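Example S7 (structure tokens).
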């Protein structure tokens, strides 16, 4: 019996060892499946669209005599008009493509929101667009040619005072693409800033409320000027920044301000100046000059750029099946159970295997 029990005890660890080996083999197979695979192929990118040979352009030919020195008045139609006033402005449409383009000219609504001048979709109307007409309303512009049109704005007698915005669009459409039916629409335009009211135009003005230093997520130094439109006209902000009295007496600039910031009446927005990453942190004596048309203001402040922001950890998307990681966890639990069983079996092998003799087991204990 002792020999049989010894054989059984010896065989049990062997079975456990074989089971352990099988479990490790299964775990290794799962580990191979779970290992991240490098991308050997990439999704095919679409072929780049052929660059158009030129395009449609439009520019303002006339400007008010009283505003010829205003750079905005040479680009946009800007005026202050009393009710029952009629004005005319000539525009020029150009075609730099290799074929004749049929161009439609019309006026549509526009708004100013969050620092941007936004032309409305399609032929969306507002009061100003209904006062505005373009003649001719359409023209075939030859390749490399130009056509002149006249914009007429007629302010009605009952027009409410205030400033209104619009766009005079030059729109060209392509022929439908064969088999698809898609039509490509291209349009360019000239902004309209028309203030209505008696007497002279409302005064335009703004304040530079703060000048702060920041960094972009990629570490570029940024200077932000908070600008408040305190006047009665919309403003198109431009400007420059200079950095003086920097570390070691360095100076840098002038740097151009971000273009395209348009402030509606009463709005406050930030004008951003992006600098080179090699600009030292500072401190700097920052001096900024901002202007809209002939209106100009300056401000200065001592600034120091903050430390570079830490880049966020990249986000990865797993393509592994959802059951894989729970299965691996289950295998790990199984391996731990097998290891615990081995420890228990080894401890049992070290214990005595024979029971004590009956006389020894039941020998009474005497006390003195």
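Recovered sequence:
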């Amino acid at each position: 019996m002792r020999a049989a029990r010894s054989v059984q005890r010896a065989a049990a660890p062997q079975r456990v060892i074989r089971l352990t080996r099988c479990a490790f083999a299964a775990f290794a197979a799962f580990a191979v499946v779970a290992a991240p695979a490098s991308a050997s192929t990439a999704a095919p990118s679409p072929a780049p669209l052929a660059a158009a040979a030129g395009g449609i352009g439009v520019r303002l030919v006339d400007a008010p005599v009283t505003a010829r020195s205003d750079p905005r008045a040479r680009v946009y139609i800007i005026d202050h008009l009393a009710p029952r006033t009629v004005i005319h402005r000539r525009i020029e449409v150009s075609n730099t493509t290799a074929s004749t383009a049929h161009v439609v000219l019309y006026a549509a609504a526009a708004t100013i929101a969050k620092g941007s001048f936004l032309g409305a979709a399609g032929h969306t109307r507002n009061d100003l667009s209904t006062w505005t007409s373009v003649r001719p309303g359409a023209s075939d512009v030859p390749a490399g040619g130009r056509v002149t049109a006249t914009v007429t704005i007629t302010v009605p007698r009952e027009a409410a005072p205030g400033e209104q915005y619009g766009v005079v669009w030059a729109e060209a459409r392509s022929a439908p693409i064969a088999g698809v039916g898609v039509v490509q629409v291209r349009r360019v335009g000239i902004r309209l800033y028309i203030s209505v009211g008696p007497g002279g135009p409302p005064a335009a003005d703004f304040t530079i409320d703060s000048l702060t230093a920041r960094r972009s997520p990629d570490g570029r130094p940024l200077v932000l000027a908070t600008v408040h439109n305190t006047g009665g006209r919309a403003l198109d902000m431009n400007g420059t920044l200079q950095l003086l009295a920097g570390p070691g007496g360095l100076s840098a600039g002038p740097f151009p301000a971000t273009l395209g910031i348009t402030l509606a009446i009463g709005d406050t927005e930030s004008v951003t100046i992006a600098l080179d990453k090699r600009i030292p942190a500072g401190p700097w004596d920052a001096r900024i000059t901002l202007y809209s048309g002939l209106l100009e203001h300056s401000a200065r402040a001592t600034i120091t750029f903050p430390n570079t922001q830490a880049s966020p950890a990249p986000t990865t998307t797993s393509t592994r099946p959802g059951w894989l990681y729970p299965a691996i966890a289950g295998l790990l639990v199984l391996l731990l159970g097998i290891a615990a069983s081995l420890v228990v079996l080894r401890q049992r092998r070290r214990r005595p295997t024979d029971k004590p003799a009956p006389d020894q087991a039941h020998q009474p204990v005497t006390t003195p």
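Notes on this example. Residues 64 and 73 are 7 Å apart (CA to CA).
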